[in-house]
Amino acid sequence: MFKGSNKWMLIIPGALMVFLFVGGYFYVSSADRIDHEELKETLTLEGHIEEETVSVHWDWGMLPDGEIEGEEYVGVMFYDDNDEQIHGSEVVDASVTLYQSGNETNELEGDIVDDGVIFSFPNRLDAYTVYGVEGEATIELETTVDRAEVYYLHTWENHAGQRGDDPSFEDPPFPGMDAYDYFYWVKEIEITN
């Protein structure tokens, strides 16, 4: 069957097919995979100010490897045109809407604190719905906002909640999580009018 040089007509394409299959397998299995720490780099976090209304939008872009459980937090602090911080008592309404593939999955109210607003919402997989990966927070104030600082705190361990009232999450207290060294990160952006 393999007389002369005809055997190369089967060996070369066969070897090429094996090489492409193995290379493709390694490419597909390693591409588009991130862990919770790398999510900070892929998270899209943006905001917009329109006089007395501040809007913040986030989108993970992709799901990280491992469990999806915990709580997400968004903290927002407001400043006027003199760069003076606006007290939380100036907040009229603060709500967050969670989305999956453009469809609304949940709507929650924010906690108004002295220095601004803190939103907390779940990040979990529930049947076919993923909570927390995309959302929008809208805050209405009694006064015009010139600048806002937005802080997104992501956790990937189940916990009893962040019990602090600092929207910048400088040193967030997590009761019962002292044994865990690293289970959250904070991403910050500044938006201006």
Number of helices: 2
Largest sheet: 6 strands, antiparallel
**Arithmetic mean pLDDT:** 86
The H/E string reads: HHEEEEEEEEEEEEE
Computed over alpha carbons, the radius of gyration is 24 Å
What percent of residues are in strands?
Answer: 35-45%
The rough form would be described as elongated
CATH class of the largest domain: Mainly Beta
Could you give the distance between the termini? 78 Å
CATH architecture of the largest domain: Sandwich
| CATH topology-level name of the largest domain | Immunoglobulin-like
Number of β-strand runs: 13
Number of domains: 2
- Stretches where pLDDT is under 50 for at least 5 consecutive residues are none
- By secondary-structure content and strand pairing, the structural class works out as mainly beta
Helix content: 10-25%
